[in-house]
Amino acid sequence: MANGVKIDTVLIFKRALGLFFLRLKMKTKHIRKVLLCEPSHFSVDYVINPWMKIGSINKTKATSQWKNLANTLTKLAIKIEIIKPAKGLPDMVFAADQALIKYKNLVLSNFHYPQRRREIKKYLPWFKKQNFKIYKLPKKCFFEGSGECVWYGDLLFVGTGFRNSTGVCKFLSVYLNVETKCLELINPKFYHLDTCLFPLNDTTAFYYPLAFSQKSQRVLKKLVKNLIPLADDEANNFAANSLVTDHRVIMQKGNKNFAVKLKDLGYKTVEVDVSEFMKSGGGIHCLVQTLEEEYA
Ligand code: ARG
Q1: Residues spanned by the domain of 221
Q2: How many domains, the chain?
């Protein structure tokens, strides 16, 4: 018994030491500045994904959830820029979707659904003022920005199947001078890549297997060293739609197993509730456009 306790202590110590050195070796992402859009015109007025039900939003609740998310970001020393919302553009609040940004380069989105296309007219002048080098895709090449792209180290995963055109991968790799890998989405509930794939760092990513074609599941298994599947309930509670900064994960409230796994991997969790936005098919990651980040 006494020996058992000793072995346990040694194991725990070894594991903690291992995590410590792993953290030292890994590049840590720090989000420095983000863009948010106030939710004053947020609602569900049309249906373009299976989550959306017209008239389902409690506006007071949505506003307080959004403010809480903004406060959470501020507390983590993230600078916030805010773009004014426009009447008649209820999805403008999802600030991740209008562009993909890498350093000073920005690829402008080309929304698949006409309902969202006018958002670009509102965002473009704001982006221009920030002096980004702006790339515009050909008209017929659909693209939905950071909602459909996630970075895994220097590799850019790009979702296709619902919103992005398959041809967009080539354009992105040329414009941003990066390696891209297309992943085919097959489940309408997980229509954007940021709803089903969450890279935590250079070696680990969470994913919802049933959101991807068999071929894309194989691609992920080949490329991601530590690929962790999300259970149905957590995927449906937007676990993949999290944000990681400085060894902290800002995540949707109520995903207990996910939180435990993150803690085991050496991360702290910060839970927020964006349930009103989930009624439109969006979560934390969708509400935040990262403008500046650092890897140290
Ligand atoms: N209602 C919006 C749409 O369907 C939600 C967008 C959520 N954005 C995201 N990055 N997943 O377009």
Answers
A1: 26-295
A2: 1
SS3 (DSSP) at 144: coil
- What spacing in Å lies between the alpha carbon of 138 and ligand 1's midpoint? 22
**3-class SS of residue 15:** helix
Q: What is the CA(289)–ligand 1 centre distance, in A?
A: 13
Q: How far is residue 24's CA from residue 47's CA, in Å, rounded to a whole number? A: 46
Tell which atom from ligand 1 comes closest to the C-alpha of 96: 10
pLDDT in tens, 140-182: 999 999 999 999 999 999 999 999 999 999 999 999 999 999 9
Query: CATH number for the domain including 47?
Result: 3.75.10.10
pLDDT at 1: 46
**Percent of all residues in the chain with a pLDDT value above 70, rounded to a whole number:** 91
Instruction: Give the position, in ligand 1's atom list, of the atom nearest the Cα of 195.
Output: 11
Torsional sign, CA 82, 86, 90, 96: negative
Which residues' Cβ are closer than 6 Å to ligand 1? 48-49, 52, 91, 94, 96-97, 116, 147, 192, 194-195, 280-282, 286
- Domain assignment present for 16: no
Predicted pLDDT at 10: 55
Q: Which tokens in the block code for residue 291?
A: 């403008």
Just list the catalytic residues: 192, 286
